[in-house]
Fold this protein.
Amino acid sequence: MNQRPRILIIYTGGTIGMIEDSETKALKPFDFSHLMENVPKVKMLDYEIDNIQFDPPIDSSDMDPSHWQQIARSIAENYDDYDGFVVLHGTDTMAYTASALSFMLCNLSKPVIITGSQLPIGEVRTDGEENLITALQIAAARNSDGTPTVREVAILFENYLWRGNRSTKRSADNFNAFKSNNYPELAKIGLGIHFYHDALYPLHHKAPLEPRYDLDTNVMAIDLFPGLNHEVLRHMLNTPHVKGIVLRTYGAGNGPTWKWFIDAIRETVKRGVVVLNVTQCVNGGVHANRYMGGDLLAGIGVVSGHDMTFEAAITKMMFLFGLGLDAAEVARRLPLPLAGELTLNPHTCPPHS
Ligand code: ASP
């Protein structure tokens, strides 16, 4: 147990490893050896560190579920050989990847720490060096009994560690680029790393990791706004092959009370499409019965997403349909927590379809 911590870094790309294109001056992903050459201090950590890199590394705007499968496979295939995993990733879609991995890595009991940076690692004022080193330290952190301190997918950025499936990118400029608006921080990073043990995901199982790789992308989102007209809404609701829709509503899960609107959503639900209500607000959640609009939606079978982020809601839909479940079962499971993504009691892993 006094062995050096063994950490696997999975480098997917993102600003942290980017360099400037000499012609266009735009930032483009670059290779992992360049990144590590710029962080010589990593050697001061007495860890055994290995790496896997995406070939080629990508801007995270190019991420899609096949990349999430690639990351999940890299973790699952190396799970027993490492104490923790650090995923280097662009910030743009980091919260989506964190949410998806939290569902795919069922029964996770080791740290998966995702980080990146706002400035490339080669720049003088980069935040990448500090983020990478802190992520490695968190991935190696142990409780006094030798068990890992973090046993979930988390995002480390600047001063905070956040639960991955509660996080949202909140700033394109600030070094504290992420926030979890409905759940407290898991750790505060200052002179030291202070973990909030009550907030960390509890280990309530002894089961082995059970990765689930299949994701179904026949899902979409509809954002409500005043002026959304009948024809536009009908077109969206009738998009071919769509099995689930995340409806981004106002305030506490509220929407218009107009008859055409409610009829259109009712018909969609009746056709067997799952409609999930999440709020457009950054903080708080759906309280469907507080206002008439939300109450009407709940009455026609729209499912409450409680206080889930949009990133968690859409990836959870892909995950549940990916299990091969029918619409009724997906609708039943969406409001139940799988990996701490909403504020209810933890639910057990879904059985194989
Ligand atoms: N466009 C970059 C990416 O998401 C932004 C970043 O890494 O901060 O890959």
The mean pLDDT is 94. The chain is about 25% helix and 20% strand. The two ends are 38 Å apart (CA to CA). The CA atoms of residues 1 and 145 lie 10 Å apart.
